[in-house]
Fold this sequence. Notes:
- The chain is an alpha/beta fold.
- It has helices at 22-36, 52-60, 79-82, 85-101, 121-124, 144-147, 155-168, 183-191, 214-221, 242-249, 266-275, 292-301, 317-324, 335-344, 355-368, 376-383, 388-399, and strands at residues 9-14, 40-44, 65-69, 105-111, 133-137, 174-179, 198-201, 229-233, 257-261, 284-286, 304-307, 329-332, 349-350.
- 41% of the residues lie in helices and 15% in strands.
- The strands form two sheets. A seven-stranded parallel β-sheet has the order 3-2-1-4-5-6-7, with helices on both faces. The protein has a six-stranded parallel β-sheet with strand order 10-9-8-11-12-13, sandwiched between helices.
- 40% of the residues are buried.
- Keywords: Glycosyltransferase, Transferase.
- GO terms for molecular function: glycosyltransferase activity.
Amino acid sequence: MPTDVIEPDFVLIVEPNLTGHRWRYVEWTMQACAEAGHPCILVTECANEDHRLAKQITAANRPDQQIAFVDPEESRTHRLRERNQYWRFHNYFQRAYRILSRTQSIRLVVVPYADYFFNGLPFLGSPFGKTPWIGITMRSTFHHHKVGIKAPDRPFVNAIKAQLFKRAVRTAGLRTLLSIDPTLPEWAALNTSKDSAKVAYVADPFPDERAEDPALARERLGLDPKQRYLLVYGAITERKGIYELVHAMTRLEHAPTLIVAGEQDASTRHFMRNHIRSLTPAPLVLDSFISNDTERDLFSACDAVWLGYKGHYGMSGVLVQAYRFDKPIIATEDGLIGWFSRRCELGPILSDLSSASIGKAIAETMTSWPHEHLTASSRDNLLSRHTLGEFKQTLLQQMA
């Protein structure tokens, strides 16, 4: 007699954009699913077919680790709505869910970056029907002034976003909202109603690595064993404060060597080409995707890490990596980067990005950091949780 084959219930992961750090969150979520025995499907846009993660999933051809490509629906009837990013992304997530749920049984949806549509939830509802879902928010900053984090003072806008947040976490189907900001769950516990979804902290991870011997790392990278190095790492854009940093370093009498590692956008690439000759010593520029091995060598070899970001009020995986490798950082005082840097005494903090301030911070970093009086307990209480294992464990607890 024929036996019925029971199709597995899948976890659906939706992320249209695999640039920057977002593909990492997708990869880690899929790894967590695999480790817990949950089959999963990633949905992303067709433009990402050539992305390294998409190729990796396709090449593996695993029945429990699948990928599907869905593009936004072209609509000529809702031009005004499409100008609203929350409506536009909500429509995409709804479309992705609708298409995949026709062919697969979906038990849970995970959204690695819920900020796409989160503020639209009070008006649009869940894009996943009655299926439960978990989201991660990375850009919720409306509460920062209330908890002592430096951010733009926009009382009217922040009040509106606070109300939207309170209503959004009451959306039917939302099981848990995870936040990489440790202060948001604390704010939510005091300001949201009892019938709201759980708001919990998930430590922003960076791939677990151990520091390499600095001399060996420098040898592999072809660096001078006696020179001092300042690292700028990640997706290199103008918001990294790279323009101000380069201008400041051209004015320093004894500047360290600048290492700029990571894919640059077009305007930054143009800027670097025009200014690279003004830097002495000549910088090391790695304008490409950085492998895990090279990343480990870079953080092992450098003397300090630059986090003088502009207009960035969220968390930074680069900060976590610098902490893990015991490297001092130079950071702006804004947002969570400034908050963590101050509380954990990670390095000099910039009140502005003037050449004078940057020059002073570089000189201080290269001569007096890390401070020897710091004890492990004063720094580890916050940042020791920022491991990939902790991230996966937190995610799986909410998925169970």
